[in-house]
Specification:
The structure holds 2 protein chains of 2 kinds. By secondary structure, chain A is of the alpha/beta class. Chain A contains 12 helices and 8 strands. Chain A has an 8-stranded mixed beta sheet with strand order 3-4-2-5-1-6-7-8, with helices on both faces. The longest helix of chain A is centred in the middle third of the chain and has 35 residues. Classes of the chains: A alpha/beta, B mainly alpha. The complex binds adenosine-5'-triphosphate and magnesium ion.
């Protein structure tokens, strides 16, 4: 049975991301898949990185930044970038209570207040939380399932480690050069290595870099992580998925396959919908040609919205 | 809109070059020159961390916030020196118009 393919291909990976265009069924598939994992006995965390969350809604539970139990073996989180950045910025504020001049304190407070809204802050905050969660894989949770935001947002998020790793490397080299020049200009006899070891700025930069490297390693580790795209038999989702798969593969992030969602039933007695079905068949053939054996599953269009435990359960049953 | 995008692009290119060490002075052993180079180098490093303060957005600006407690002391002087160097920076910045 085809459902077995989802489980057999994915089940051994510790982290699975569900991605795709807006509204195609990412939240539906990640909920159903994580429920299947939990039923197989894996302690599973399902979490949403989409700032416009709907994971809690589908389970009909209010979710937040801390894990909440959804079922036996199943826990859920909706990452809240604002909670995350508040925590970070408050920590900095506390450390700032030193003996700085009033002028600079005012300026810095202004800067910290603006930081919440600076471009990239939301993604950076989500990514920080993501790195924390990676640490729980294999210890706190056996499986982690990501319900991601629509494609563009997610691809930006996933290219962050590569970009930041390079950027931080440059900064570390700059800092090292400055320290070296300072050593040359200084009368104090202290080696470069000592100066670097005693430098809190260097320590922070190296620590950041190390965390990004760890995330990067995890993302490209085919044994541990993988990406699944959900799409509908329609033109735009097909094109967007094709582009996104290419992007991930160029960046070494393994794509495990795709799930086709909302396929119209075969027995249609309305002429109008029979025509629609013909159009859809054309798109299904396109998907077949483009993705072939990477198609993991086909989910029919259901007569009801998928919301609430019972309907997730219905999809989960097809998976397992 | 295109203008803002252009400015951001220019700013980023400029920062990227700073980050590659593009503006670092030649190494010399004369202590006086090294001292000056060290100070300049440090100013560029602070620029990489806090270019936001001067209105140049940086990809790392969220992450460098946590450096503030260790660098705040230097910021005031840095901002003054940057204001002095504004003409030089503008000139360098202008170069990024053509690439
Ligand atoms: N196979 C299906 N049959 C019927 N309704 C479906 C099916 N799959 C999903 N839906 C419904 O379509 C809507 C969107 O699904 P879902 O929330 O899973 O998509 P999404 O990709 O997570 O959306 P977003 O990009 O907004 O996060 C929901 O109301 C869901 O109940
Ligand atoms: Mg969703």
């Amino acid at each position: 049975m085809e459902g077995d393919k989802v489980m057999s291909v994915l089940v051994n990976k510790e982290i699975i991301f569900f991605g795709g265009k807006g509204g195609v069924g990412k939240t539906t598939c990640s909920s159903a898949y994580s429920l299947s994992l939990a039923r197989r006995g894996y302690k599973t965390l399902v979490l949403s990185t989409d700032p416009a969350h709907s994971l809690g809604q589908i389970f009909q539970v209010e979710l937040g930044d801390a894990p909440k139990k959804l079922d036996t073996n199943l826990y859920g989180i909706e990452i809240d970038p604002e909670t995350e950045s508040k925590r970070y910025i408050n920590r900095i504020r506390q450390q700032m209570q030193g003996s700085f001049s009033a002028n600079i304190i005012i300026e810095i407070q202004r800067q910290l207040d603006a930081a919440y809204h600076s471009p990239g802050a939301e993604e950076a905050a989500i990514f920080d939380r993501f790195i924390e969660i990676i640490d729980l894989v294999g210890t706190e949770y056996q499986r982690v399932v990501f319900d991601t935001a629509p494609t563009g947002h997610t691809l930006r998020l996933l290219s962050l480690p590569e970009l930041m790793d390079r950027w931080l490397q440059g900064m570390i080299e700059r800092r090292r050069n400055v320290k070296e020049m300072m050593r040359m200009a200084s009368v104090v006899d202290k080696s470069l290595e000592e100066r670097i070891k005693d430098d809190p700025v260097m320590r922070i930069l190296l620590d950041r870099k190390q965390r990004f490297e760890k995330a990067k390693e995890f993302l490209i580790d085919k044994k541990r992580a993988g990406f699944v795209f959900v799409l509908n038999p329609q033109q735009l989702p097909i094109l967007e998925t094709e582009k996104a798969v290419g992007f991930l593969e160029r960046n070494g992030i393994p794509v495990e396959g795709i799930i086709i969602n909302r396929i119209m039933p075969d027995d249609i007695d309305s002429e109008f919908f029979a025509k629609r079905k013909q159009v859809e068949d054309g798109y299904l053939r396109q998907i077949e040609a483009k993705f072939g054996d990477r198609i993991l599953h086909r989910i029919p269009l259901m007569e009801y919205d998928i919301s609430g435990y019972e309907s997730i359960d219905r999809v989960a049953k097809i998976f397992s | 809109m295109a203008n803002i995008k252009d400015t951001i692009k220019k700013g980023l290119k400029f920062l990227a070059d700073v980050n590659r060490g593009f503006f670092e002075g030649a190494r010399e052993n004369s202590v006086r020159i090294v001292k000056k180079d060290a100070l300049d180098g440090n100013d560029y490093f602070i620029l990489l961390c806090f270019s936001d303060f001067l209105g140049i957005p940086s990809p790392a600006s969220y992450y460098t916030l946590e450096l503030l407690p260790y660098m705040a002391e230097e910021l005031e002087g840095w901002e003054l020196r940057m204001a002095d160097k504004k003409d030089i920076l503008d000139e360098q910045f202008e170069k990024y118009h053509f690439h």
